[in-house]
C-alpha cells in the first residue's frame, strides 16, 4: 500500500533529481518507491476492472438481448 508519506518522498526525490541530482542510495530508494507505487496502481486497477459488470441494453420489444 502506498502512503501519503511515500508519495511525498517520491515527489521530493523527483524534484531533487531535476535540480541537484541524486546519490546512489537515493536512486535506489526512488526506484524502490516507484516499483511499489506501480504495483499498488496495478492492483487497484485490477480490482476496479474485476468489479465491472457488463449489462446488455434492452431491445425495442422489451426483451433482454443475449450475447451470441
3D structure, described in words:
- The protein has 68 residues and is mainly alpha-helical.
- It has a domain at 4-50: Orthogonal Bundle (Helix Hairpins).
- Helices cover 63% and strands 0% of the residues.
- It contains two helices and no strands.
- Helix 1 (4-19) packs across helix 2.
- The longest helix is centred in the middle third of the chain and has 27 residues, at 24-50.
- The protein starts with a helix and ends in an 18-residue tail after the last helix.
- The mean pLDDT is 89.
The multimeric state of the shown protein is: single chain
Q: Would you list the SSEs in sequence order as H and E?
A: HH
- Quick one: biggest sheet? none
Terminal residue distance:
41 Å
Brief summary:
By secondary structure, the protein is mainly alpha-helical.
Comma- or semicolon-separated keywords:
rod-shaped, 2 helices, Helix Hairpins, 63% helix
Amino acid at each position: 500500500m502506498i502512503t501519503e508519506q511515500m508519495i511525498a518522498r517520491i515527489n521530493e526525490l523527483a524534484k531533487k533529481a531535476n535540480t541537484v541530482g541524486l546519490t546512489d542510495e537515493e536512486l535506489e530508494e526512488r526506484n524502490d518507491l516507484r516499483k511499489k507505487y506501480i504495483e499498488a496502481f496495478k492492483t487497484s486497477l485490477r480490482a476496479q476492472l474485476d468489479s465491472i459488470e457488463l449489462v446488455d441494453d434492452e431491445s425495442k420489444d422489451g426483451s433482454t438481448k443475449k450475447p451470441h
